[in-house]
Structures are given as C-alpha cells and as structure tokens.
Design brief:
The protein is mostly helical. It has helices spanning 2-12, 17-30, 35-48, 68-78, 83-91, 108-115, 143-156, 169-181, 246-259, 270-276, 284-301, 313-337, 344-354, 366-369, 391-396, 398-413, 420-433, 438-451, 460-464, 467-472, 484-494, 508-542, 546-553, 559-587, 602-607, 609-613, 618-625, 648-674, 678-686, 723-740, 744-767, and strands spanning 99-102, 127-129, 136-141, 474-475, 478-479, 691-698, 704-711. It has 3 domains: 25-384, no CATH class; 508-625, no CATH class; 645-689 and 716-767, no CATH class.
C-alpha cells in the first residue's frame, strides 16, 4: 500500500489538470497519515508552484476569462477547506513534522533580517542554524506554514510570461485565504477547529510601535493574550492559547513580510541583488494583491473593539500596526521607482487605500474577489466617513500622508495632465485629500511639529507638557495636542535615515510652489479645452463629403474608437476643473490668484520645487512637457491592442492560427520571400514583410532598456478580424443563399477564387513592371 501511494502520486503528476486534481483528491482523502504522505507533500508543493515554463499549475495565468473550467478546478482544490488543506491538517497530527525552507528562497529584505538575528518573534521557533557556522540557514515549518510560505513566495517569484492577473486563480485564492483565516467577523471561527495541535510554542509578545505609551525607556510590550499566551486575569484560560489563532497569525505575518518586501540595493549588495532577483520591481498583479491585503487588514482590525473578549482581539490590534509600517516603506519604494505611465494608478490606489481605513470597516474585498458580480459597484463604496475616531490613526501614520504626498506630486509636474488617465489619477488624489477634516488635522499636526522644531527629536514626554501646544493645537473644538508627539515619533521611526529632516507642506515658503502646481492644472485645463475643440472640428470634417458618407455606410471608419476618444476628451476639462478646486482648498489658496496662463506652462514646471525634488532627468521632463506627434507603435503589429472595431474572439483565434502556421512553415515563408521569380512576388503579396520591433525590458538594476527583435517574413490574418470584414462576408453569403441557393462551401470557394485572382493579378503586374514593387 505504501508503494502504491507513491506510484499513484508520481503517475498522476503527468496527467492533464482535470485528471491530476481528481487523482490527487482521491489519494488525499483515501490515505491515512503516513510517511508516504509526508514524503509526497513537499513534492506536491513544488509541482503546484513551479515556474510557468516548467510543470507548474499556472495559478497566475489561468483566469476566469480565459479558461473558466480550469479556474474553478484550481479554486476547488486549493480553497481553504479543499483537498490541499485537508492534506495539511492530516500531516499536522504529527507535531514534530517540519519541512525546511531555505532562507535563500525568501525576499532579500526578510532574508537579511533573519540572518542578522533581528527577526520578529514569529520566526524565533522556526529558525534552523548551521551546526558549524551557527548561522541561520532555513526555516523549519509545519505543513500549513510551509504551504502558506510557498503560496506567498509564488507572487514575488519571477514569471517570464505575462499573466492574466486581473481575474487569475492566484488572486482569487489570496482573497479566499484572507477572508477565511482573517475573518472580519470577530465571532467567526477559523475552520476546521484543531484542538490538539501543539506544534506552536508560546512566544514573547510583539513590540507595540505606533501607539505605545511614550517613555524614555525601552518600549513596552503589548498585552496580547492570544499571541504570546501571556496570562490575563480577565480572559478565560481557554482563550489564551496561541494555538487557537496560529493559522491567522501565519497568514498575516507571512503575507505582509513577503508581499510587502522592498528589494532595495546599493553598491554593496548589487551583486547579490542581480544574482537572486531577476524581476526586482513589483508587478502590477503584486501591487493589486497588496492592496487587497491592506483593505482586508483595515476591515479585520476595525473589529478589535467590538468584542474585547474574543480570541483574536490582540491579533486584530497588532495586525494594523504591523501592516502600516511595512506598507509605508513598500509604497514609498514603489512611488520612487514606478515607471512614468498610467499604470502608476495601481500604486496610487494602494496608497489611498492605506490612508483611508474608514472606507473599509466592512468586508470590502468581496468586489475584488468577484469582479463579475460587482461591475456596477463603485470601488470601496461605503457609508463610513472620516470622523474623530480616526485621529489617532492619522497621527500614527502621519508620514504616510505627508511624506508620500510630497513624492507623488512631483510626478504630476512632469506628466501631460491633458491625458485622460493622468487627469483621472490627479482627480482621485485631490478628491481623497479634500475630504472633510483630513487636511485640517494634517495641517494642524504639521504646524505643531514645526513650531516646536527645536525639540523635534526631544523626548515625547516633554512634548506633552508644552503649554503652547495645549492652547493652540485644536481642530473643530477638539483638543489634538496629545497626538502631536505620536506624529513626531512616527516621523522619526518610519524615516530612519539619520539625516532625515521633515519638509513641511503648509508653510509660506511652500505657498508659491503650491500655487505653481495648481496653475499647472489650470493651464492643462485650458489646453484640454482647446484640444477638445480641435478634435470636434476634425471629426466634423471627416464626416463631410460623399466619400466620407460612403465609408461610413460601409463601416470602414473606426468610429467607435473616435467616439471613445471624444468622450474621454470631454471629461478631461471637467476632471481638471474639479481637481483645481480640490488642490486650491488643500493648499489654502485663493482661486482669484489663478490668472490665465499659457497652456504649455513651461516656466511653471521649470521653477517649481516639486519638479526640482524629483529624481527624473531633465531630458525626460522636457520630452514629457510637449505632445509628441511622432509617437508610433514599435512592437509586433499582430500584438497591438485590439481595437473597438475588431472582434476580440476572432482576432485572438486568427492570431493563434497564424502563429502556428508561422511556426511550422517559417523556413518556407522566408525562402519564398527572398525569391525573385513570380512566386516570390506572390509571397510578398500574401506575407508580411520582415521588420524590427522594439520592446522595453527591465534589467536587474530596475533600468528600462530597449530590446530589439527581428521578425522574419510571416503570415498575418489580423485584417480578417475586423467587424466590417465579417459584416460584408455575412452579407455576401446571405445574398448568394437567398438568390442562388448557394451552399457555404461554394461561397468559401468563390471567396478564395476572388482573392487568388486579385493576388495573382497584382503579382503579375509587379513582375512585369506595370505596378511598383
């Protein structure tokens, strides 16, 4: 029987996905815990999370849109109570069973932290040291922890193929794990219940950071009964064990440490960086997954006061503290390194989710998990609003609001704000910071900090006794002076650079710079209005005349694309107008000071401190100021984004057919193209000419380089995917069918003959010199 399990396991790994999952489910459910199950578990993990060019399961490529059947199969097998976790819980019956995870497979930041011995208490009972060097070399993990680590690492691992990450299986599973192991409802237990597991030892309580009592002595410890097992007179003994929440603790700590790792490098570790990290920067799918994590932890932590006696109360309190510090450094790194394109909205939305916990007091990730059910629902729409209860959170995370804002604003100083996507991004930013109470609280905190600038690094206790703050720092009738020391400490703790000096936003010194920023928005508004007028005039001219009417009747013009561009252009002035008012209120500017400007606004960007603060080169700035009319698509013509006048399904199907034919007959196509006889002319009428395409690729230092690729002569069927072509083919078939009772085969034969005659005629004319080659 033992040999039979191993044989069945290795055999089923070669099956197609459907048969593989059925066979694995049978093996897991029908086998009792044994040494063989323990042996196949790490091999199964490696098979699931193998890279996409090997025999992995494709969690980041299988999506709801591309292959719904495989998507459902993967979800059902790997869901929190599916066969995979049933196997984990079977193996947990042996509390001594551990699997080693090398530290070298962890993100560099976490790896270096563990090697230096400055790791969180969560890892203390997991570290495995080398007997000779006494250095930490691996983590000894139980089956559940081993699976969660590998699942989290799969997102940050290098993936050579672009994944369909918008609705992929990995993203759905990440949402499921968060909702199951970190339930927003304090009374919802994590199922199944594991009462007898004793593989987790008690650990010291984590350090409280942001809201700990201020003292000149060492930081105090959290009183968290469920995390460390510390006794509490008011908590029943059965609620004190760590074993009741250890799965939630693992998911929380691992997801934050792995997904929010910051892969920074310098002259000392660049060699190690290049060796271990092919894809150093975060991918869009990773940023989107981190955002879901942030939103859910906000929802998870919001319930920590609802039932103080619940088992996970301490974990809920600790979760947001742990997340905010890591998210600040992660977002700060992303803002500094993300490319200057519209995809930056992913990073910005992540940041806006971090600084708006009041929007996610309920389970807010359902619409991310099930996007097809929430297409008409506005993202993050809740009735919760900012009130006095979030003042402490704002103070504890003061740098997340102000320091990152000063990194984000310079990006917009070098972007074309008349672009629809850029205008929407800036509008979202202004709308968030124009919420009632937010800027007044931030402005008051900043004012109190800079007024007592001489004591910026003084002890927090002395700041509480500052009479000036007691009398002056208030907002809306509420005394806020007690939060100043918290905000000051957050600045010093989150910005650990020894030469860090906070640069205020709401000062007279920055008023001119703020005015320049709002003027740039106003100039972009004028430019967008002018551009809208020109576009409307050009479209009106295109629809005039007999030939234009004829093309319109034949559906030869991509009107859908033009109409979409016109609709976006109409929205841009409205977005910029609202944004201008938002930032005028945020910076406390008088709108009467916004005099009409030249839409280009060259001098504004030149002399703005926002522009001078950036690390962008002046050449990039100059290129982005003006609208280049010579921008062309440099990639593979067959991989251009599908236009609205094309059939998505047909274009993709024709591309697959053409790709297969090119793969099989590539040599024949090349030889035909190079011939100078009649058949060479025929081939040049049918095939696409050789060309050189360019694409951008990041190297290990996160610099984008242009990579060139030579495409040989090849077959392209892209033109057959237009809706106009399909329409006239159908019309022709109906005509022959009604009047001549022609069959479909005969109609296809007629089309082929007509096409062949056209190609042969053109090839003959070019061969004889009648037409130009």
């Amino acid at each position: 029987m033992a040999l039979d399990i191993m044989t069945r396991f290795y055999t089923c790994l070669n099956y197609p996905l459907l048969d593989k999952l059925r066979a694995l489910t049978t093996i897991i459910d029908q086998s009792s815990p044994s040494k063989d199950l323990q042996a196949i578990f790490p091999q199964l993990i490696n098979n699931i999370f193998a890279s996409s060019f090997s025999n992995g399961w494709g969690l980041r490529s299988v999506s709801w849109d591309t292959d719904r059947y495989e998507y459902e199969l993967l979800i059902s097998f790997l869901e929190p109570q599916g066969p995979m976790f049933r196997l984990c819980y079977k193996l947990l019956l042996d509390p001594q069973l551990k699997y080693n995870l090398p530290l070298s497979s962890l993100p560099m930041e976490l790896q270096m932290t563990l090697e230096r011995g400055r790791c969180p208490q969560f890892y203390m009972d997991m570290l495995t040291t080398d007997q000779q060097s006494l250095n930490a070399v691996a983590l000894a993990l139980n089956p559940f922890d081993f699976y969660i680590f590998n699942f989290a690492l799969h997102l940050v691992s290098y993936s050579p193929n672009k994944s369909s990450w918008e609705n992929c299986a990995y993203f759905a599973l990440a949402c499921d794990y968060l909702m199951h192991f970190l339930p927003s409802d304090p009374n919802a237990p994590v199922l199944p219940h594991i009462p007898n597991y004793s593989g987790k030892v008690h650990m010291a309580a984590p350090l409280q950071t942001a809201n700990r009592p201020f003292s000149q002595h060492s930081p105090s410890l959290l009183i968290i009964p469920d995390l460390p097992g510390i006794s509490n007179q008011h908590t029943p003994p059965q609620n004190q064990t760590r074993n009741e929440v250890w799965r939630s603790e693992t998911v929380l700590q691992v997801f934050i440490d792995v997904w929010m790792s910051v892969e920074q490098f310098n002259a000392r570790n660049i060699e190690m960086y290049q060796k271990n990290y092919i894809n150093a920067n975060s991918s869009p799918e990773r940023v989107r997954t981190v955002r879901v994590l942030v939103k859910h932890i906000h929802s998870f932590s919001a319930k920590h006061l609802s039932d103080p006696a619940c088992r996970s109360d301490g974990l809920r309190t600790y979760a947001r503290q742990l997340m905010c510090a890591r998210a600040y450094h992660y977002i700060k790194h992303m803002v500094s390194t993300w490319p200057l394109d519209a995809s930056f909205r992913l990073v910005m939305e992540l940041w806006l989710s971090l600084i708006q916990p009041w929007r996610y007091t309920d389970n807010a990730i359902n619409q991310d998990r099930f996007p097809q059910r929430n297409n008409n629902q506005e993202e993050g729409s809740t009735h919760a609003a900012l009130d006095a209860s979030f003042t402490q959170y704002i103070a504890e995370n003061f740098p997340a609001y102000t320091c990152i804002l000063q990194l984000v604003l310079p990006r917009f100083m070098v972007l074309d704000l008349t672009s629809y996507k850029n205008a929407v991004m800036l509008f979202r930013l202004g709308k968030v910071f124009s919420q009632q109470h937010l800027v007044p609280i931030l402005k008051g905190l900043e004012k109190a900090i800079i007024e007592n600038n001489s004591g910026f690094y003084a002890s927090p206790e002395s700041s509480f006794n500052t009479s000036a703050l007691d009398s002056s720092f208030s907002y809306n009738g509420m005394a806020l002076h007690k939060w100043v020391a918290i905000a000051r400490q957050a600045l010093s703790e989150l910005n650990m650079s020894p030469n860090f000096e906070y640069e205020p936003i709401w000062t007279e010194y920055k008023k001119q710079h703020s005015l320049d920023f709002v003027k740039k928005i106003y100039a972009a508004k004028l430019a967008s209005e002018k551009h809208l007028e020109e576009l409307e005039k050009r479209m009106n001219q295109q629809h005039k005349g007999l030939w234009a009417s004829f093309k319109h009747w034949l559906m030869l013009n991509p009107e859908d694309e033009d109409s979409q561009a016109l609709e976006e252009c109409k929205k841009v002035p409205n977005y910029l107008n609202a944004t201008m008012h938002f930032f005028a209120d945020i910076f406390g500017l008088q709108e009467s000071s916004l005099v009409p400007l030249d839409p280009v606004a060259e001098d504004i960007t030149e002399h703005s401190s926002f522009a001078n603060q950036t690390q962008f080169s002046q050449s990039i700035t100059n290129k982005l100021r003006g609208k280049s009319r010579s921008i062309t698509y440099m990639g593979d013509p067959d991989l251009m984004p599908i236009a609205t006048y094309e059939s998505t399904i047909l274009v993709r199907m024709l591309y697959q057919i053409a790709s297969r034919l090119n793969e099989v007959y590539q040599d024949e196509f090349t030889n035909l193209w190079n011939r100078n006889d009649f058949w060479g002319h025929v081939a040049r009428e049918i095939l696409q000419q050789p060309c050189t395409v360019h694409s951008y690729a990041r190297d290990a230092t996160n610099h984008q380089n242009i990579v060139s690729q030579n495409l040989p002569a090849r077959l392209s069927l892209r033109k057959l995917g237009s809706q106009a072509f399909v329409f006239w083919v159908v019309v022709g078939y109906l005509f022959l069918r009604i009047f001549y009772s022609a069959s479909g085969v005969f109609y296809i034969f007629i089309l082929f003959i007509m096409w062949a005659c056209l190609v042969l005629t053109k090839a003959t004319c070019k061969k004889l010199g009648i037409m130009r080659v």
